[in-house]
Design goal:
Layout (H helix, E strand, L loop, with lengths): L14 H12 L2 E2 H10 L22 H4 L2 H16 L5 E6 L5 H10 L3 H5 L1 E6 L3 H10 L4 E4 L8 E8 L8 E6 L1 E9 L3 E7 L2 H9 L9 E4 L1 H13 E13 L1 H4 L8 E4 L2 E3 L10 E3 L2 E2 H8 L5 E7 H7 L2 H10 L4 H17 E8 L17
Parallel strand pairs: 2-3, 2-5, 3-4, 5-10, 10-14
Antiparallel strand pairs: 1-7, 6-7, 6-9, 7-8, 10-16, 11-12, 11-13, 15-16
Helix pairs in contact: 4-5, 9-11
Length: 371
């Protein structure tokens, strides 16, 4: 997800102008390359700039932003994993910590277990310099930052991400007689053009057993397949937890218009060519692909569920009751539970394992079918 600055584009103030002039000089670019620039162009992309993204002044909320319960319960799952691995040295790798709030809440809970905390190594993979500095102001010295997981060495423990994979840049395709890829041109405004899809995109769908019906649009996230293989290669023993919104392939590719969406000031819309660099652009995660490509590096599916069931298995209800008994207002408790339940139905949790047999994890007490 690294975009290098085009030397010919230096001096521009607007990312929209940079993208427009690149297209006018070099010709249409794939939607994947457009999305990469919109999200990650140095200093001006949505995820590389210093503008607020979370909260009232941002564009969306996350579970971790609204409550520390999410991180607390996730930490309980990690503690259970540490015990299953023999209570030895334990490494946690978090991809894309964002505001750092989830990391803070996880560490706050793990600190209660002195033996575990002493044996804990906690790394954050963060490529954004602006986000890294923000996280460092919030988080304790226990945390180390890396640009790539390969800098850490073999991992025994847990590698996790929360709302990461949905922001990988995607190829957009349309079935019109044959599979075609969406390109972005400029003619007084941004326009879309269709070209025959390259073999790598055709092969992706074939490997998943997917045949798009005529007229259907979809997104293909090749970066997710590279990412899960990188993670699988780094993990020696333990688990990978991927939390995001998405579906198994059979459901994902049954949506006629695809799942691409944009978020700007808490409003959702479907025009990626507005507010370039100032809005989030996302697409739903293909969890079947994470499973299939993960198997190439020895990852096995430990379980698949939604976020609500994951948190319920880890004791969400009892923690909410405890908070009410200790001063949380009844209305606040009902609001928090409703929010977590509503949000949790949309988010899925995939847990993959490597180098360890089947372990009954509390977060997987209520499972769905991955397919």
């Amino acid at each position: 997800m690294t975009v290098e600055v085009d030397q010919d584009m230096q001096g521009y103030n607007s990312l929209r102008e940079i993208v427009r002039d690149k297209i006018e000089r070099e010709g249409p670019i794939s939607f994947r390359d457009f999305m990469e620039m919109a999200l990650y162009y140095p200093d001006l992309g949505y995820y590389s700039s210093s503008r607020p993204r979370l909260g009232e002044k941002g564009d969306f909320y996350t579970s971790a932003y609204l409550t520390g319960l999410f991180g607390e319960l996730l930490a309980r799952q990690m503690e259970e994993m540490w015990q299953a691995l023999g209570r030895g040295p334990f490494t946690v790798v978090e991809y894309g910590a964002g505001s750092g709030l989830l990391c803070r809440d996880v560490l706050s809970r793990l600190r209660e277990n002195e033996e575990l905390y002493e044996k804990l190594n906690y790394y954050i993979i963060e490529k954004s310099g602006a986000m890294r500095e923000r996280e460092k102001r919030l988080l304790p010295a226990k945390v180390e930052w890396k640009e790539a997981i390969g800098e850490i060495g073999a991992v025994t423990g847990c590698i996790f991400s929360n709302e990461l994979v949905d922001n990988f840049s995607v190829h957009r395709v349309v079935m019109e007689g044959e599979l075609k890829e969406v390109y972005v041109g400029y003619k007084g405004g941004f326009v879309e053009d269709l070209r025959p899809a390259p073999e790598m995109l055709v092969d992706y769908l074939i490997r998943l057993g997917v045949r798009l019906p005529e007229g259907y649009q979809a997104e293909i996230n090749l970066e997710a397949t590279r990412w899960i293989q990188e993670v699988g290669q780094a993990l020696e023993r333990g688990w990978v937890i991927t939390i995001d919104y998405g579906y198994p392939a059979a459901v994902l590719y049954g949506k006629r218009s695809g799942t691409l969406a944009c978020y700007h000031r808490h409003q959702v819309h479907y025009s990626p060519y507005e507010f370039i660099g100032e809005q989030d652009i996302t697409s739903h995660v293909n969890f079947t692909a994470l499973d299939q490509w993960g198997r190439r590096t020895g990852l096995e599916v430990g379980g698949f569920t939604n976020q609500t069931r994951f948190l319920q298995g880890l004791g969400l209800a009892s923690r909410l009751r405890s908070r009410e008994e200790n001063g949380m207002g009844e209305a606040d408790g009902r609001w928090l539970q409703t929010f977590l339940m509503d949000m949790g139905q949309k988010f899925k949790v995939l847990i993959q394992r490597k180098g360890i047999g089947k372990v009954l994890l509390s977060g997987l007490a209520f499972q769905d079918w991955l397919g």
